[in-house]
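Our collaborator T.R. sent over the components below with a one-line note: 'Predict the complex.' Nothing else. No constraints on interfaces, no templates requested, no preferences about which chain binds where. So this is a plain run: every listed entity goes in together, and whatever single assembly comes back becomes the starting point for the next discussion.
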Amino acid sequence: MLTDDFDPMKGEMLRVMDEEGNVDASRMPKLSKDLLLKAYRNMLLTRLADDKAVKLQRQGRLGAYPPSKGQEASQLGPAMTLKEGDWLVWAFREMGALLWKGAPLETLYLYWMGNEMGNVYPDGVRITPSVVPVGSQVPHAVGIAYASKMRGEKDVTLAYFGDGATSEGDFHEGLNFAGVYQTPNVFVCQNNQFAISTRRAKQSASTTLAQKAVAYGFPGILVDGNDVLAMYAAAKEAVERARKGKGPTLIESYTYRLSDHTTSDDWRKYRSKEEVAEWERKDPLKRFRSYLVAQNILKDDESLIKELTEIVERAAATAEAVPVPSRQDVFAHTYAEMPAYLRDQMGGGGK
Amino acid sequence: MMMNMVQAINSALSLEMERDPSVVIMGEDVGLDGGVFRVTDGLLDKFGEARVIDTPLAEAGIAGVAIGMAFNGLRPVAEVQFMGFSYLTLNQMINHAARMRNRTRGRMTVPMVLRMPYGAGVKALEHHSESTEALYAQIPGLKVVVPSTPLEAKGLLTSSIRDPDPVIFLEPTRSYRMLKEEVPDGEYLVPLGKARTVQEGDDVTVIGWGAVIPLIQRAVASLQASAEVIDLRTISPMDTETVLDSVKRTGRAVVVHEAPRSFGPGAEIASRIYEGAILKLEAPVERVTAPDITVPLPKGEDHYYVNEQMIRDGIERTLRF
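Returned assembly:
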């Protein structure tokens, strides 16, 4: 068990692939070439789509947006271990995971453009809507998992949140409930080192965030979050544990946000260019690409970049073409049935 | 069968759990102990610990986990031990339960009930006597339901459990064991969003809910004038129509609540009456409420709570105007 081999109390961190893309064969998870390529494709798409979202925001065509740059591996690895019936509960910086699970890119753009239809995923895609009040989605993941377990279903619920969320009461209450009820949950803390401008060290005096699992009575593991193979391996084990009815796991993904918290802030105010440059050398995409090239799985990605850029452009255009909500749209779903006074407030037949 | 409110609520919970395997009960001490007021007594034995869930001591967690359960097909009925502790659930109830339907344009919903005792009358500790229904009623997407008798409690709770939207269900602490009345053993429903005319009258309309209903009934019994008494039952969404129909006939209205006066439900009710019936009014809408102070400890509570005399005085002021 990886969780036996890496002690979060001692700060031991799982890593499969080093910064040059060399892999530790003893830790390498079983993944077909196809799946490896598919993973690279997702990470590249996330990078390109993220970049496009920032550009759209700068042009006033999309609202405030939280960039994913640098966290593609951290997002994708765990999502790759999910089955169709499994649930994905996210915060707001998990684009790669959502794309993998089946959320269309145009839907994600639509949300950041300010339309609730961007929270509507295709039927059967079990993703909850974004959660902006930090950490408050953690108990939801536990409730979802409790319901699966109660009915004897084998579905697992994976929840993402950030390092800042671990300071919130909802994180504690959620993980505490999960420990008590041994729910089929996998909790992924994307420790990107910052809650907006507040550094990880000011968030918690714990040596690692993964060690918090110890207090809740279930395993925790610290993982190199810029190593998609390590994130996959840790999550695979955790998801299997949950599916077998052996309870939850906390995974701390040690990563770095290469861009701003959202397009409304400027990272230069709270960190040095040198620090960011240091993490750019650890870019999860470059690292994975080096590995794939060395293994002759990938030759070059020029044609892939071209194909994905077209997909991104099409998704943005599709999202922009969605009409603004009608008055009926914004009133109709307050309650299952509209009370008389709301119909009065809506007025004009809802046009 | 003759039941008090505790028994009537227990009966509603038990029948709904038999009828629908997706209904679960959760909260602090609701299982083994049957809840601090014994409302859920016996349900653990009947339905087992997977469905009658003793939770860790964490109100926000209870609400948040219940919301997740509702996302995944359950109908949780969560208990908070006293209304004063329900403030810990506000982030979950306001930011998630209330708006999930709208945020997903109807695809994801939160059919849950958050039950809690509210109000005065049991000489309790601090934070045990709150009546802050207006806090919840302000939130679009939540329903706020308050029963006034055992029969009403059974019918309204059954409807709340079956309702597709999140319901804050406020149980008047002092009415839990005050009165017994005939309550059907089997299924009994009272629709949400419909007020009840407790008694008809011609001269003044007195509007209240929950624990003040019996006080109003006693207060009007000794009046010379003929009072119409309306039990609002659902604070939100409010049944404005029943209130307006009555006030248009009587021309006078008194609103009675245990909640503090300013920004209380009475202000909203008065506003709706002015908007809908001003030309029929013979007097300003009178409010008989708690003052805008922190709920005193038991030795000082007579300075706080609405009583029969205050209600009678309020009605007489309105009639004299």
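Summary for T.R.: The radius of gyration of chain A is 20 Å.
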